[in-house]
Please model this.
Amino acid sequence: MPLTIAPITPVFGARISGIDINRPLDEAAFAAIRAAFDEHLVLVFSDQAMTDEQQIEFSEWFGPLEGTRGVNPGSGTPFARQSNLDLKSGEVIPADDRRMFYQKANMFWHADSTFKAVPSLCSVLTARIVPPEGGATELASTRAAYASLSEKQKAEIEDLEIEHDFAYSRGLAGFTFTAEERAHMAPVRHRLVRTNRATGDKSVMIGVHAKCVVGWPEDESRALLDDLLARATRPENSYRHEWHTGDAIVWDNQATVHRATAFDTAQHQRLMQRTTISSGVPNYVAT
Ligand SMILES: [Fe+2]
Model:
């Protein structure tokens, strides 16, 4: 069966079928997937229930995996675990537990790992346990946000640097790190405008971790970042994915943003496993 690439929206996103990504891929098969990723930014695969080992094997085609550390229960592994289930006991975590507060920040529009010195290329999120309602993931194109700017606006932002700060963004959700945790997450600077090496398409790397434009007054900085996010998340530039067990999604962390949506964490179970692929490019200036 040939690989089929069906666009999800006119702006971004594609559903990929006709390939089993749990079986060993060859160079030609991955080249087709990678080309679809560069063009569509978000790839959706269905009925591809994965083990952790299969997810690692598929993810590594895109590049080296980030290690997870810190507060996430996947710390010490390549997985960022998004779940209301305790890793060891399997029991539902109470809503007022610190771990659930930590995950609430995922409901802000963001891209994964923009707060890291080497930003991420993409993430792979797989649905292991899906609640009967709620828990969708919304995605939006920051390539479309860039494209919506006038030529003058594009020129104005071309060389800007953005400070990304994980403690800042988690703080917006009411989560406070300990001094020891904070010591591992100094703010970083990244170029705002990103260029896809394969397509030449430009996008903006934004989202909740983007604290400020370096060197700009706070109000102007916030206004620009808010405007870019508003452009990205216009309905025509967005896609809402309702998960089914066995779904796998790859999203571009430099050309899209995403956010989690609510579900009844006391009544239902949800378990998602994320691998995060590094860009390998330290395109930043340390602060
Ligand atoms: Fe995320």
